[in-house]
């Protein structure tokens, strides 16, 4: 039988989130951050190997809409990103000890369920694995097979940290939407070229009716 996955998606308190988009978005920054997280969660929930999505956040303004989409919401103890992920993973293991556990960044507004499914199928072959971001510096997905220790090393140059921790780097063709996290206006333009999910597309169309912000 194929492995099923619990995916943990961390969402930072909105007042502190997406600061690299502040100049481009002004007062709409938090609305864009929620929309991006909504598209990430929607795509994850539509991915066949994903049994459940667990959002970890301390922010009720994110918890409300993400819970309404069908995610389980766990309160973030607010001791940093990797602690948030371990908290979500512990919840996942309590719910479904026989399922694999993955961490997925919340800022993947172009994510395609089929591309995530391809990565999860590949990840099912390795005890510990990860997907590097589009720049080959960070990480967008980290996962472990059922029953194995979950040791995420996100933050900064996390690709090299995950390699150092012994995780297998998944270098697959055709998973651009999974690798395209959005931190800057350039990232947002690249995600638009792949095709934004409906929540982000609606906010972007309202914010920039004539097209994306100039460089
Ligand atoms: N729950 C939780 N999520 C976090 C935390 N720190 C970062 N994240 C999430 O981790 C991912 C990467 O976050 P960062 O790139 O560090 O922060 P960001 O808000 O996306 O962007 P910047 O403010 O521009 O750095 C995003 O999905 C964030 O929502 C945290 O302390 N708790
Ligand atoms: C936290 C990370 O991502 P970001 O590029 O969004 O800062 C990371 O890649 O480990």
| Number of E-state strands | 7
Count up the helices: 9
Question: How many domains would you count in the coordinates?
Answer: 1
| Rg (C-alpha, Å) | 16 Å
| Lateral arrangement of strands in the main beta sheet | 3-2-1-4-6-5-7
Small ligands present? guanosine-5'-triphosphate, phosphoenolpyruvate
CATH topology: Spore Coat Polysaccharide Biosynthesis Protein SpsA, Chain A
**Largest sheet data:** 7 strands, mixed
**Average pLDDT value?**
95
Uncertain segments are none
End-to-end C-alpha gap = 49 Å
Binding site for phosphoenolpyruvate: 139, 155, 158
Enzyme class: transferase
Catalytic activity: phosphoenolpyruvate + GTP + H(+) = enolpyruvoyl-2-diphospho-5'-guanosine + diphosphate
Pfam families: CofC
Structural summary, described in words:
It comes from Nonomuraea glycinis. Keywords: GTP-binding, Nucleotide-binding, Nucleotidyltransferase, Transferase. The structure is a single chain. By secondary structure, the protein is an alpha/beta fold. It has one domain (5-207): Spore Coat Polysaccharide Biosynthesis Protein SpsA, Chain A (Alpha-Beta Complex), CATH 3.90.550.10. The chain is 41% helix and 17% strand. It has nine helices and seven strands, in the order E-H-H-E-H-E-H-E-H-E-E-H-E-H-H-H. The protein has helices at residues 22-25, 29-45, 60-69, 81-95, 113-123, 158-164, 176-179, 185-194, 198-207, and strands spanning 5-11, 50-57, 72-75, 100-104, 128-132, 139-144, 168-169. The protein has a seven-stranded mixed β-sheet with strand order 3-2-1-4-6-5-7, with helices on both faces. Helix 3 (60-69) links the parallel strand 2 and strand 3 (72-75). Helix 2 packs antiparallel against helix 9. The chain is globular and about 50 Å long. Phosphoenolpyruvate (PEP) binds at residues 133, 138-139, 154-155, 158, 181, 183.
